[in-house]
C-alpha cells in the first residue's frame, strides 16, 4: 500500500529550498543527502536527511538484504538509476513485499515490521 504523506511533501519542499539556498547542487552529482547514486539508503530513526546527511545503511547490490536493528520511523530513499526499484518486505529473504519504491522515491516508514528490502533490476 502506497503512503501519501504531507511529511514527504514538506521534506521535498525543504530539500528544494536547501539546494536553492546553498547553491551546491552540481550537474552529474547524484549523491542525495549522503546517499550515493545507485544505492538504496536508510537514515537513523527519526532523523531528517537534510539535517543529518549521513544514511546509516546504504545498499548497492541487486537482490534482497535482511534488515537489522531498524525499528520505528525512518526515511528510505531509492537513489538507484535506470528505472531500478526497491521493495520493502515483511519477511526475511525478500518475500511478502508490500511497498515498491520507484527511482528517486522517498518514504517515511515504520521499519519495525519490515525484515528485508530488495533492490530490483529494471
Automatic annotation (TrEMBL):
<feature type="signal peptide">
    <location>
        <begin position="1"/>
        <end position="27"/>
    </location>
</feature>
<keyword id="KW-0732">Signal</keyword>
<protein>
    <recommendedName>
        <fullName>Peptidase inhibitor family I36</fullName>
    </recommendedName>
</protein>
Amino acid at each position: 500500500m502506497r503512503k501519501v504523506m504531507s511529511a514527504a511533501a514538506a521534506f521535498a519542499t525543504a530539500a528544494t529550498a536547501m539546494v536553492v539556498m546553498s547553491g551546491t547542487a552540481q550537474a552529474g552529482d547524484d549523491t542525495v543527502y549522503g546517499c550515493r547514486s545507485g544505492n538504496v539508503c536508510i537514515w537513523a530513526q527519526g532523523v531528517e536527511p537534510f539535517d543529518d546527511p549521513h544514511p546509516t545503511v546504504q545498499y548497492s547490490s541487486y537482490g534482497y538484504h535482511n534488515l537489522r536493528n531498524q525499528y520505528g520511523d525512518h526515511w528510505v530513499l531509492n537513489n538507484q538509476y535506470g528505472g531500478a526499484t526497491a521493495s520493502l518486505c515483511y519477511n526475511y529473504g525478500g518475500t511478502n513485499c508490500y511497498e515498491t519504491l520507484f527511482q528517486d522515491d522517498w518514504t517515511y516508514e515504520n521499519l519495525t515490521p519490515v525484515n528485508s528490502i530488495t533492490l530490483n533490476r529494471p
